[in-house]
Design goal:
Helix content: 10-25%
Number of strands: 13
CATH superfamily: Penicillin V Acylase, Chain A
Structural class: alpha+beta
Number of domains: 1
């Protein structure tokens, strides 16, 4: 993912509410949201170039999501794919804090990343840039893009404020969460970060919803983990013009309460 907002233990009915965008080159092949077979049975999209994923949910309602770190010096030549991090977490039932602490000890092998891990009792943030860190988060609302957690990039602030307003209204819907991040307005030049990609590209990627012939928002995902054990995951897919090309919804109960999925 390249932009996400996560509400952890902040809502009376939900342990986790997460909404995010995957921004990527349109030419990079990927498979939409679906159940994986194999060692890790998870619900996720799949990057066909490197084989990993940006966001996944397992049958226990555990969630992992990764964003790349965009900054000079964040790329690690020849390292493993950051897309393997989410499947690695969801392949077992290790507590998020334990997995995060172990990963922090070997995180230097990867290019810069941010990782959020949810295991129903805790939400853990892991990063490796500029130095490795793993910490459990308190109840609250968090925003993340391609810098450290809650760094106030304009699109992070805008997305977090809109999601907060929806959740606090008590009248929100899944469609409203998707609309909250479907904002094509770039940030003013004076507020743009300098991540080493040049002003024109900084301007392009400063919008919460990126529309461009080569690179843009490929999909959006909403994850709802209800306190009664029900999990719902919705995905919307987009083309290079920003038009919706697919809609997928999965609803199931946590394996701890008897799993049913479709």
């Amino acid at each position: 993912m390249c932009l996400l907002v996560a509400a952890f233990d902040r809502h009376a009915a939900y342990r986790l509410v997460l909404v995010g965008h995957r921004d990527e080159f349109h030419a990079r092949p990927a498979v939409p949201l679906g159940w994986w077979d194999g060692p890790a049975v998870l619900l996720a999209g799949r990057d066909l170039q490197a084989g990993g994923t940006w966001l996944g949910v397992d049958r226990h309602g555990r969630v992992g999501v990764v964003t790349n770190f965009r900054a000079p010096g964040a790329l690690q030549s020849g390292g493993p794919s950051r897309g393997e991090l989410v499947p690695a977490f969801l392949a077992g039932l290790r507590p998020a804090a334990e997995f995060g602490a172990d990963l922090a000890g070997r995180a230097g092998r990867y290019s810069g990343f941010n990782l959020l891990l949810f295991d129903d009792t805790s939400l853990v943030y892991v990063t490796n840039h500029p130095s490795p860190e793993s910490r459990s988060l308190r109840s609250g609302l968090y925003g993340l893009s391609n810098d450290r957690l809650d760094v106030p990039w304009p699109k992070v602030v805008r997305a977090r404020e809109r999601v907060a307003a929806l959740l606090d209204s008590g009248r929100w819907t899944v469609d409203a969460l998707f609309r909250a991040l479907k904002d094509r307005l770039p940030a003013p030049d004076e507020s743009l970060p300098d991540t080493g990609i040049g002003i024109e590209r900084e301007r392009l990627v400063s919008a919460p919803f990126i529309v461009d012939p080569q690179y843009g928002t490929r999909c959006a995902t909403v994850v709802l983990v209800h306190r009664d054990g029900t999990i719902r995951v919705d995905e919307r897919s987009y083309d290079a013009q920003g038009e919706t090309t697919g809609r997928t919804t999965f609803a199931f109960r946590s394996a701890a309460t008897g799993n049913e999925h479709r």
